[in-house]
Amino acid sequence: MQRKWAAPLALLAVTGSGLVLAPPAQAAHAPCTRVTIGSGWYGDNQARLQQLIDRYGSCNPHRPGRTKPVAVFDWDNTVVKNDVGDATMFWLLRNGRIRQPAAGDWSTTSRFLTPAATEALAEACGTLARPGSPLPTGTPAGAACADEINAVYGTAATRTGAAAFAGWDRRTTEPSYAWLPQLMQGWTAREVRGFAAAARTENLAAPVGATQRVGSGTATGWVRYYDQQKDLVKGLQKAGFDVWISSASPQPVVEVWAQGAGIRADHVIGIRNTTTHGGKFTTHLQGCGSVRDGADTMITYIDGKRCWINKEIFGVRGAAAEKVQPAARRQVFAAGDSDTDISFLRDATALRLVVNRNKNELMCRAYDNSDGRWIVNPMFIEPKKQKTDSYPCATSGYLDHDGTKGPVLRGDRSVVPDQTDSVY
Predict the structure, then answer these.
(1) What does the alpha-carbon distance between residue 7 and residue 38 come to, in Å, rounded to a whole number?
(2) 395 CB contacts (<8 Å, ≥6 apart)?
(3) Pairing of the two strands 268-271 and 242-250
(4) At what angle do helices 45-56 and 227-238 cross, to 10 degrees?
(5) pLDDT attached to residue 181
(6) Which residues are bridge partners to 335 per DSSP?
(7) Terminus of the chain with fewer CB atoms < 10 Å: N or C?
(8) Which Pfam families match (predicted)?
(9) Closest CA to 315 of 288, 275, 342
(10) What does the alpha-carbon distance between residue 36 and residue 238 come to, in Å, rounded to a whole number?
(11) What is the pLDDT of residues 148-176, one digit of tens each?
């Protein structure tokens, strides 16, 4: 199928209700091939995505004066199955690439680490390496150290069950996610990209369902790209969309993986370390909005994703980046799989794709679909079975800044009723 445009249309703004178009120019425009979305989608999702491209896309996206519509994807379990941050952490532990912290003091690696976790890590990792030197976590002698690090990272608790982190804002950061780039202290971005590339090669080569030895235990040992999402990214780009990734995995790690989906490093927004004058990562993180560099309280997580998207994609500076922007300065399309994605998904003006992993707030909003712009798809590999009980939207589906639970509210402050899982 082909479209023939007598003249190009200059996009002035993208609004929640559609496009604002300038009058057509006088020069004739060559015909172009319609961009189509591939198969493998649930229900009418393929048709809804096709409608998005047909409405907002252009086969000639690089005309002067044209503002590209923006599409933003989460990464882990949205574009790929499994977590590339986890894959990198396991590789670092297996290959002894995590450094002993300054003075052997683990509290320097995260301002939110509890005394119980600090003591457990110091006891397990002891004097295995001098401060600043890599710990031998891939050897039998370092297995206990690897196990303790992996427990704190993976469960936010020590091996004895004590809470590993305390005192953080649940809507702007997740200290266990932030801890991975903080543990990369002492390495450069180029070196971390090398580690991530090695982990990527191993995880793509491993069969689906494979595990790997980490310390004295086992962990997931495989990752796969979702073909449908790679195809969607390609289609959006071909149709003239400006496609970005926003992820709560470390920046250089996602840069490596994003290349496999055709997304350049300069279109990746991950957790970003501050660096020394020599380019080595510190244990501190870059800030966004009103949060300064080194405060470590605003990563690409829930409201933090909104801030970083506004800052990096739309050029919003200062505290204003933490706020919802006018429709013309927001993404048209967004895709995610977790409550960590809820804010930037809600900001999308035209369509929001949710990959169903049974996350409470996200599924409450997606199934409620109060504005008709949400679509839900099962996971493309190993989809979850139907959730047997309802999502507790009316009582505890929302997690507040201080960790208290409450009802999920619509924009008009009405309560979202409990929802039944229907796309699985």
Answers:
(1) 28
(2) 405, 406, 407, 418
(3) parallel
(4) 20
(5) 98
(6) 73, 353
(7) N
(8) HAD (PF12710)
(9) 288
(10) 10
(11) 999 999 999 999 999 999 999 999 999 99
Q: What is the pLDDT at residue 58? A: 81
A 10 A CB-CB count for 327 gives: 15
Tokens of 75: 């990464």
* CA–CA separation, 264 and 300 (whole Å): 18
- Looking at this protein, which amino acid is placed at residue 372? G
Res 12: pLDDT: 36
Minimal CA–CA distance to 202: which of 323, 102, 84, 121?
84
Q: Give the model's pLDDT for residue 10.
A: 36
Quick one: pLDDT at residue 67?
Answer: 83
Q: Read out DSSP for 320-357?
A: GGGSPPPGGGS-SEEEESSGGGHHHHHH-SSEEEEEES
The whole-angstrom separation of Cα 306 and Cα 311 is 9
Along the chain (424 residues), what's the average pLDDT of each consecutive run of 10 residues?
36 39 38 75 97 84 66 98 98 98 97 98 97 98 98 98 98 98 98 98 98 98 98 96 98 98 98 97 98 98 98 98 97 98 98 98 98 98 97 98 98 97 98
- CA-based nearest residue to 109, from 154, 153, 155, 139: 153
Question: Look-up: residue for tokens 């445009």?
Answer: 5
Q: How many residues does the chain have?
A: 424
What residue type is assigned to position 32 of the chain?
C
CA quadruple 143, 148, 154, 155: dihedral positive or negative? positive
Strand 351-356 to 333-336 pairing: parallel
CB 351 within 8 A of CB 331: no
CB–CB of 424/415 below 8 Å? no
Position 22 scores a pLDDT of: 38
Output the CA–CA distances (angstroms, integers) from residue 307 to 320, 323, 330, 350, in the order listed.
8, 7, 12, 20
Predicted confidence (pLDDT) per residue in 220-259, tens digit: 999 999 999 999 999 999 999 999 999 999 999 999 999 9
Sole residue written with tokens 């172009």: 32
DSSP secondary structure code for residue 411 in this structure: T
The amino acid that residue 234 corresponds to is K
Distance CA 54, CA 74 (A): 23
CA distance linking residue 327 with residue 230, whole number of Å: 27
Q: How far is CA 186 from CA 42, 105, 278, in A?
A: 45, 15, 10
How much is the pLDDT for 31? 47
- 218-250 per-residue burial string, b: 16 or more CB within 10 A, e: under 16: ebbbbbebbebbbbbbbbbbbbbbbbbbbbbbb
Amino acid at 69: P
